[in-house]
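ZP: hey, is the zinc ion complex queued? I don't see it on the tracker
AM: it wasn't, my bad. submitting now with these inputs:
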Amino acid sequence: MRLRDVGFFVRGRLSLALARALSARQPRLPVAPLPLETVLALRDPSPLDLARVLEGHDNAEREALVARYLAARGVAAETHRFETFEGSGANYAVDVGRGDRILVLIAHHDAVPGSPGANDNAAAVGILLKLLARLAAAPPPRLRVRFLFTAAEELGYLGARAYVRGADLRGVAGALSLELCGIGDALALWDAGTETPLSRAVARAAEGLGYRRDESYHVVGRVPVFGSDHRAFADAGLPGHGLTVVPAGDAEALRRFIFNPWRSILRGASRPRPFDTYHTPRDRAETLDPAALDRVGAALEALVRIF
Ligand SMILES: [Zn+2]
């Protein structure tokens, strides 16, 4: 047990307690997830279809559903199980493409208890499962893309930390974790205060698709309070950033919120989208915008082709 891990543990528990406090007064409507078999019967399920498979399930079920989906599609995933005093779970890694350079794309499959976990983070899992199918059909010739589906992100990105501790990271040229990718029309790259080859490639990919910096594409520095799996890679000295979709019109309110979330939470002020549903029982699939999920998938595909 390292002192640093105790810090993660305490912070993780605090953020779960906060999520519970925020959710306590909210009504819990039943959620009807899409059965896995229904989605497997579709020839070409959308990212939203895939996200709806996980929605509303508890974390053990979400983890099992990702494994079952990959197995049913004939995808050979490497399973990485971990168990520490902080918690346990299974990460799944799938490599597509060739070469010595590796781009890690990450989506955590767990959710905060009490939240259906649609935007956080079933949407991101759906986006990556869809991209995985697309790249498997046309693998990048000079890049290996590692799809990493992590457990226990909500416990201070425990799954990613355990993965980074145990994995061979030679060749990893960057790690991008997808968070809150289901609502909005502008891209936001965060924890990106310092330029890296990865952040430059994301910018080129976005600009190539017509996004405009500070209008429909935002670059944000180190974000306090919130974090995600890419930080485990950044802590290991590798380029690591978070990718989120936000409503372009709410960008300024969002900037104020993420850099000072406690103030608005403690005041009980309304939170800007997509944080109005974040970690609450209202994080349901019907709040997701299918175009947002498709938008992120297209941006990632462009990134893979130029990175
Ligand atoms: Zn998350």
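AM: back. The chain is about 40% helix and 20% strand.
ZP: great, adding it to the tracker
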